[in-house]
Amino acid sequence: MRRKNLLRSVHRLPRVGVLAAAALALSASLAAIDVAAQVQPAIQQRLDTVREQLFSGTGRADRSIQELKAILAIDPGSAEGHLLLGIAYRTAGSSDLMGEAVAELRQALALNDKYVPARFYLAHLYLDLGRPERAREELQAALAQSPQNPQFTGLLGETERQLRNPARAVELTRDALKVDPASDESRYYLGLALSDLGRRDEAIAELERVVQAQPRRLDPYLSLGTAYLEAERSDDALRVLRIGAQVDPANPEVRIQMARAYRSKGALDSAEAQLKLAVPNANGALAASQFQHQKVEFDLDFERAMITFRRGRLELAAAAFRKVLETDPNHGPAHRYLAEVYLQQGRFARAEEHAARAEQLGAPLPAVKRKLIQQKLGKQEPGARQ
Hints:
mainly alpha, Serine Threonine Protein Phosphatase 5, Tetratricopeptide repeat, 75% helix
């Protein structure tokens, strides 16, 4: 029962004579048995208290860490203690503690290799760290011990999505929902996978169902808001993203998407105000990996470049888009808008270069602007009759 509860709560003498030594050892062992009979229930009660605080969000992670260290000093062989310490380290959010979290979960498995909750949370942690291959290994091992577990199956679906197998992700998350139709987590993963497949309306419908449950996590609001933006529904996006900002006011990602929504409506001052709030916190919950931190910085740079472009500051915008492309040379939207900047500056050869690259990367310039570049260069439009 305890394992089930853990999974449902988502979110380490002086020398003496031989006879005297034997008598001492016997006495000590009998005393240990007597103490263990009294201590173990007390230890379990303390573990239960920490677990409740961790999963309910009513306690501070640092206090849980200290309590669990004290418990493990008494009972270092407690697999549950190591599991909870790993979860507490992950909850604390500091990038410095992610390695400690992995080590504690690994220790739980070393003590009990059939302890599937440890594999489940280890898979979550590997996804946080941008290591979906390792997450897949843990989940496959967990499913070998607990076939058709909907939580394992749903998370494996998200893992496959991060491994760029969205069709397989849809299949797995639908399987999980057949077993547990009420799982908002699996439904959320299904929405993400459908979005990756370009099935935007279906994705929005699934994400809306998740948000209707009023989750206390930011991710569903952020994903639905982003999907609304892709569908050019800026007002709907702002409505959902504002709720997300109330759930996690310090999260930079929701601020970046709100800036994007305001920018799409032409409210550039409001967009810039949101970007001022979107400061990545190197010690915050988002800093679980260097990869996540770099992604936030990249998205900030791109949105700043877009606002600069919308304000008509072409030289500054060109420099900003070039900075984005230095980080990711294959970012299609940056190539597209840099082509637009060069077109407005009359630098048609450069505009054509970036427009061609943008089209290759799936972010083509509007046909009328591509045609204008060709005309300015005195070239026939690609695909036209000779």
